[in-house]
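Hello again, I could really use a second opinion on something today. I owe you a coffee for this, so here goes:
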Amino acid sequence: MSKPLSRSTVALVTSAGISLKKDPPFDMEREKREPLWGDRSFREIPRDATEQDIDVNHLHINTTYIKQISM
């Protein structure tokens, strides 16, 4: 790295369908109709978001555990 981590900006990118509850959901209905299509949009999660602010929508992973933690 060219500078210390404490002076860097770090981003985490995931394909787990994580968003804020107030955000529009990912388009899972289209993916059900067109299995090779996936919603490529993204949602920003602010650093002050809590577990109660988070939602997860994904067709190919079991979201039960994640939703139990965030409710």
The CA atoms of residues 27 and 40 lie 9 Å apart. The beta strands are 18-20, 54-56. The mean pLDDT is 85. DSSP finds two helices and two strands in the chain.
